[in-house]
Amino acid sequence: MIFGNNKFVQAVNDHSSTSYNATPSNFTEVPEKKSVVAFFLGMAIIAASIFLGHSYAFFGSFLALSIFITLLWKNDPRPWIFLVSISAATPISISRFQFSCNLIFALWFAVFNTRYLFRLPAWMYVPAILAVLGIFTSSINWMSGDVVRDMMRQVTFAFNFFLAPFLLLPVVYLRMSESPDHAANLKGLLFCLIVPSTLILISAKLFGTVANPWEASLHEASLAEGYLHYQLGKVFVNFQRTDVGYILAALFCASTAVTVSQVRGRYRLLASACLVSSVFLLLATGSFGSIFASICGLAAIFYMKYRTGSVTKVLLPLAVVCCMLFLTYSLSPPSIQEYLGKRYEHRVENADTDRLVLWARAIDYFLKHPEGVGLTLTVGDEVKSNPHNDYLTYFVSYGFIGGLAYPILVVALLIFFFKVPKNIIGDPNMFAIHLAGLGVAVAIAVNSMTDHSNVNRWYFNVIWSLIWYSYFCSLGAQTGYVRYRLRHETDILRTTASQE
């Protein structure tokens, strides 16, 4: 009996040391004022981009600042991660190759801290490897006479739409799994990811000027509002419904998760304001695919709350959110309500089946080029059309091998977020973050069937930043709980063994 217990204790100790303590904690907490500085510095970057636009002054200043701050704060995880998260909302891209600001930070960090590229959870390397293989298999089609130009174009696309969600953004948020301060983590989610993008989007809608009235007028007069772009300062904010709907669905779900959680009142109030803003903007764009994705994300959030609590604790916040949705619609301008009526008639009553036609065309194009053609948002040789489906877009672009990467990533995230350990349920701050990740993951999984997320780099990177931030915060809480249970069980077994 003693021998058996000793073997078990040794096994537990070995498992604990190899599986959970192999990577020492590098999350050094710093004074909160440094995180406040990071917040205002990130907002200053956004403000500079709005006032300076695509100028060499902004590009040069940002590149110098991003290198300096990364070197200065690379060992101070929280303020650096907060700054990178805010910079994801910068409404312009760096250089003519359009690299998003947060990815520039991520690139410097990966260069200066290469070891973090090899510390990601093992499963994440599977879709990353498939993505790389897909880029190579598709090269036989996208390389033409101008090899250098084609390579630069496809490398830029791969950097933004493969390396970003599969490697670079996970590396940015990896250290959040070592953060023990869940209240501070919730602040980062709310103030550095949800608020900045919501603020810019609502400002563009309310205070910006329509930048493409003639282009919008080419569509049916009743549906023209779904094709608008707004100018805010010297930047342009895309409000085309199939493009902006993606980020609005993600912001809706993330802000709802905080609103219905038992966190500090001022956080819930701020999240509620973001929720109302997202709903108003979703109604204004009239994207039925994104609205449906938002409803699915909302259903997942309340389903999880029902699984982990009593019915009464679910009904009250559900009633509050439904009332907020109804009031937002009721108080919307008549033009928006009329536009939604036209969209409903177009999509539901007339049973528009354009998506089915577009998907069939994309599948035929994929069957003609199973090796992939390089990243493209259009299919067809003579008649070009957008697949309006992210899964098909990746298959068409990077063939069967590379195309598998995206659905594998999405499914793996859904499996992760639908599992909630007890220690997360007992911590309101951590539970709110987990619910946000669940809602956004469900929304992007559903919305990827009907629209495209990779038209706008700002929207794309904010969505995936929300997901990876929530993922690694939740992963840290779970592994921390496992470590605690292992130590607790080990102590009990050692006590029993000594008594015997």
Explain how this protein is built.
α4 packs parallel to α8 and α6 crosses α16. With 500 residues, this protein is mostly helical. It folds into 2 domains: 93 residues, no CATH class; 270 residues, no CATH class. β2 and β3 form a beta hairpin. The protein is built from 20 helices and 3 strands. 73% of the residues lie in helices and 3% in strands. The N terminus is likely disordered. Strands 1-2-3 form a 3-stranded antiparallel β-sheet. It is globular.
Number of helices: 20
- Multimerization status: single chain
Morphology: globular
Q: Order the strands across the largest sheet as they lie in space.
A: 1-2-3
Task: Classify the helix fraction into a percent range.
Answer: over 70%
Residue windows where pLDDT falls under 50 for at least 5 positions? 1-24, 484-488
Q: Tell me the series of helices and strands, N- to C-terminal.
A: HHHHHHHHEHEEHHHHHHHHHHH
Characterize the largest beta sheet: strand count, sense, and whether it forms a barrel.
3 strands, antiparallel
Strand content: under 5%
N→C terminal distance: 8 Å
User: Please, how many domains?
Assistant: 2
Radius of gyration: 24 Å
Structural class: mainly alpha
Q: Output mean pLDDT.
A: 83
How many beta-strand segments?
3
